[in-house]
Amino acid sequence: MLVSELIPAAEKSSKRLMVMLHGLGDSIEGYRWMPETLELPWLNYLFVNAPDEYYGGFSWFDYPDNMAPGILRSRRLLFKLLDDLVAKGFAPEEITLGGFSQGGLMTVDAGLRYPHRLAGLVDISGWVFEIEKLLAELSPVAKQQRLLINHGPFDPLIPFDPVKEQAQRLKTGGLDVEWHEFPKAHTIYGHEEIAVIRNFVKAGYPA
User: Is-contact 91 117, C-beta < 8 A?
Assistant: First the structure.
C-alpha cells in the first residue's frame, strides 16, 4: 500500500493526472512547488511516498546494493496504484507518470512494463535498472509510450555518461525517447528544465 496525496486541478472537471515519484530520502513534500510552477491548470497531481522509511523520508528500494527485490516490489505497487487510478476514472492515456532519481528509475521500470499506454513518462536525473532485462520484458504498448529523460554532466550521484548511453540503447530498442541534458548536478535545472517538462507533459494531452 502506497501513501499518496491528490492535488486537484484548478479546472475541476479535468481527469488529466500527473503521478510523481520522489527521490531517495524525499517525500510527497518535495513536490509541493510543482502545480504552481508547471502552470497547467487542467492537470491533477498525485504525489506518492515510497514504501520504505529512510532517514526522515522514504525509499523505493535499497541503494546501492541489493536493489532488485525492492525494485520488483515497488513495480508491483505502482502497477496496483495505476490500476486503482483507472478504476477511479482516470483513463491510462490521461495519466503521466514521472519521477526524480530513484523515482525516475521506477518510472521507466514500471512504465515500460505497464500493459496500457500512458500520456507520458518523465525521468529526471534517474537511470535504468538492468536495461537488457527491461528491453526483453517490454509491454506490448511500450513502443507507443512517450519517454522524456533529463540528466546533467555534473551529477555526482548518478553518472551522466552511462545514463546517456542507456537513453541511446532505449532508442535503438525502438522506444520513443526524448533526451535533454542540462548543465546541472543532481537537481532540476530551474525554469529551463521546467519548461521542457511542461512542454512534454502538454504534448501528451492533445486538444
Answer: no
